[in-house]
Amino acid sequence: QVQLVESGGGLVQAGGSLRLSCAASGRTFSNYVMGWFRQAPGKEREFVAAISWGGGSTSYADSVKGRFTISRDNAKNTVYLQMSSLKPEDTAVYYCAAVRALGIVVVRTWGRYDYWGQGTQVTVSS
Questions:
Q1: Average model confidence (pLDDT) across the chain
Q2: 87/40 Cα distance (integer angstroms)
Q3: Percent helix, strand, coil in the chain (nearest 5)?
Q4: pLDDT tens digits for 28-40?
Q5: Cα separation of 25 and 32, whole Å?
Q6: Hey, CA dihedral for 104, 107, 112, 114, is it positive or negative?
Q7: Rounded to whole angstroms, how far apart are CA atoms 124 and 90?
Q8: Which residue among 75, 89, 108, 116 is least packed, with the fewest CB closer than 10 Å?
Q9: Rounded Cα gap, residues 117 and 5, in angstroms
Q10: Is 38 helix (H, G, I), strand (E, B) or coil?
Q11: What is the SS3 assignment for 80?
């Protein structure tokens, strides 16, 4: 089992920045591909970003490319999502997720992830 706890969400004005953190416990963190997803009210959960077990490979949704950066610190069992130039359409609950890195580099499909955090709310005002 892997336990994931997100933090860092909040209310920010458009154009501002936030950094989300996701602390993992329970298993060897470096064995897992990590991802960030988000879900706005009335919408489906969507992929935001993912990072390989070693941090050498990343993937981003087109809607956040160039504005968001995913990173990880395996010594601290933590994955981050640095969000800049935030827009009102970025408003959502943000979730981190983990899946065993069994020959995979990054995963963009939420259904393939095995473990999820409880989510953290990000609200961007216009």
A1: 95
A2: 13
A3: 5, 50, 45
A4: 888 999 999 999 9
A5: 12
A6: positive
A7: 7
A8: 75
A9: 5
A10: strand
A11: strand
